[in-house]
């Protein structure tokens, strides 16, 4: 008597005896990816290393996320979750928008829990083009386009990009390169100086 044929696996799908594919596996892989990318950077991170931390077979990582770039995008989306709230901050109305944005942005970076993963994302983007491409796409799609949609000014996307470049520049100098005296400046002093410029970018014609 012949044994019944085993069902064929889909592309990239590991055998059931090769991986722990239970409830929450996809999210576990994504969290492991954020941890490994943050610790090792983009270049030194491998799918196999992420799979080891997640406790799954590497084939299962490919099945859920495809390429390393796709996995990086999924990982940084977790790290960038605080930035996803920027459109809501902007959407409260034009009055005081510059101060609200500066205060919210610095608050995210001053919090050690949110600063560490953001630092890893910025460092990866500064040193690897593939990582920079993924980050650009995420910021444009999830933040800048939504901010621009709420601005009642000429060239809203350009204005949103100017505001973003100003704040990202501060983040790089203060938190990544730690250039003094900006690195040790009081956050409220930074808000006071930066807010009028952001207000002009986002509201003045």
| Secondary-structure element string | HHHHHHHHHH
Q: What is the percentage of strand-forming residues?
A: under 5%
> Mind telling me which CATH architecture of the largest domain this is?
Orthogonal Bundle
Q: Which stretches of 5+ consecutive residues score pLDDT under 50? A: 1-19
GO molecular function: DNA-binding transcription factor activity; transcription cis-regulatory region binding
Pfam families: TetR_C_16, TetR_N
Keywords: DNA-binding
Protein name: TetR family transcriptional regulator
Written account of the structure:
The chain is an all-alpha fold and 205 residues long. The chain folds into two domains: 25-75, Homeodomain-like (Arc Repressor Mutant, subunit A); 80-203, Tetracycline Repressor, domain 2 (Orthogonal Bundle), CATH 1.10.357.10. Helix content is 67%, strand content 0%. It has helices at residues 25-40, 47-54, 58-65, 68-79, 86-90, 97-110, 112-127, 129-149, 156-176, 187-203. Helix 8 (129-149) packs across helix 9. The protein starts with 24 loop residues before the first helix and ends with a helix.
Provide key terms for this protein:
Tetracycline Repressor, domain 2, disordered N terminus, 205 residues, mainly alpha, Arc Repressor Mutant, subunit A, 2 domains, 0% strand
């Amino acid at each position: 008597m012949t044994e019944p044929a085993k069902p064929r696996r889909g592309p990239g799908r590991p055998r059931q005896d090769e991986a722990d594919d239970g409830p929450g596996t996809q999210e576990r892989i994504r969290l492991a990816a954020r941890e490994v990318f943050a610790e090792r950077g983009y270049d030194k991170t491998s799918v196999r290393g992420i799979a080891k931390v997640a406790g799954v077979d590497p084939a299962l990582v490919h099945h859920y996320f495809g390429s390393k770039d796709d996995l990086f995008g999924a990982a940084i989306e977790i790290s960038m979750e605080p930035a996803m709230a920027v459109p809501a901050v902007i959407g409260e109305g034009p009055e005081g928008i510059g101060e609200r944005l500066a205060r919210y942005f610095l608050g995210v970076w001053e919090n050690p829990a949110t600063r560490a993963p953001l630092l890893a994302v910025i460092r990866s983007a500064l040193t690897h083009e593939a990582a920079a491409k993924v980050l650009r796409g995420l910021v444009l799609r999830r933040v800048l386009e939504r901010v621009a949609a709420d601005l009642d000014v000429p060239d809203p996307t350009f204005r949103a990009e100017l505001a973003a470049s100003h704040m990202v520049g501060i983040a790089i100098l203060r938190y990544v390169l730690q250039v003094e005296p900006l690195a040790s400046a009081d956050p409220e002093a930074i808000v006071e100086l930066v807010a009028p410029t952001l207000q002009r970018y986002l509201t003045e014609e």
